[in-house]
Amino acid sequence: MTHLERLIKRVFGNEIKLRSEPYIVINLVFAGVIMLIFAYSGIFSPYKDNYPVVCIHQKITGMPCFSCGLSHSFSLIIRGRISEAYEWNVYGLRVFLFFASQLLMRITFSGYYISDKSHRRELIIYDIVASSVIFIVVFYPFFRQLILSFISFHGTGA
Amino acid sequence: MEDVRSNAGHNLGVAALIVGILTFVLAVIPCIGTLAIIPGIVAVVLASVGLSQASKSDAPRGMQVAGLVIGIIALMIAFSQLFVAGRLARDSSKWPMDIKAVIEGAKDEVMKDLQDGSVSIKIESDGDVVEIKARSRRSDLEKTLEELEGVDEDTSDTLTKAKSDSLGKTN
Fold it and tell me: Using CA atoms, how far apart are residues B91 and B85, in angstroms rounded to an integer?
């Protein structure tokens, strides 16, 4: 039994083997990635502008893209400066809320999954549907922009 | 006796699904969408290897298929981001001329608006209101000018006639 499995047994009272429960492994990995994103936003400062990730789209085309300013926006939201975050990127807050909701869902759903063995299948289906709907709603402007770009290129015969 | 099914390729399937979902989220964001090609390829390769292992030992294949489908869709989105960025970069050489034409057009429109514009200034102070209305409709101004010129010509003609009449009478 690993340390994590022992910790899960202590918190939820149920024994679980991570090797045979991919849902818990996936949830743990996603929760870790989201926490890394938040740590990235917290560590790098919008005032020093020392972000290591640069916009590839801007490097290629020379013009800012739809998602430029998201890093600044996330950092400002973490620091509680919502209005400034909105100025950096209009969609910053909704994308941040998506990640925050996903972090909450990963933790909550994992807890339910471990403690309630009888509804695991339904829980996974509900999770997939809910996460997909939230993802589409949040990233709809990004999809729309991509599709419009395609249509405009097709329309001009490019 | 209970039939125990093999678990071959299961871990690869889980890895492919995780990488595939992360690639999907990355691919949608234009800033880093083109970078998602690399994890997208990784997800497809992992899923394919996992699927192959599962097929050989007749193990469940749901996780591997899910990873493969999500990986392929994510890869398509990432490639479309690259395509859009490439097209924008190619067309960017035309932009300076287009921008110049747009500015010229806007300038002409502003000049036309200024020529045919009307201005209203309202000043309120302690209940007193002063309103100044000025109109600079070019066509109206030209008409007024023509009328004024017409009046001047008539006036000068009348004066000349009166002068000649008075001179004739004197002679």
Answer: 10
pLDDT in tens, B62-110: 889 999 999 999 999 999 988 888 887 777 666 666 777 778 888 888 7
Cβ contact, residue pair A146, B30, below 8 Å: yes
* Residue B116 confidence (pLDDT): 67
DSSP letter, residue B134: E
Residues across chain B: 171
**For residue range A125-153, what is the model confidence (pLDDT) as tens digits?**
999 999 999 999 999 999 998 888 878 77
Q: Give the Å distances, CA to CA, from B144 to A64, A87, B12, B127, B157.
A: 52, 51, 87, 36, 20
The per-residue DSSP string of B34-51 comes to: GGGHHHHHHHHHHHHHHH
What ipTM score was computed for the predicted complex, to two decimals? 0.87
CB A65 to CB B30 under 8 A? yes
Q: Where are the domains of chain B?
A: 10-96, 116-170
Residues A64-87 have pLDDT tens digits of 888 888 999 999 999 999 998 988
Residues 107-136 of A with CB under 8 A from B: 135
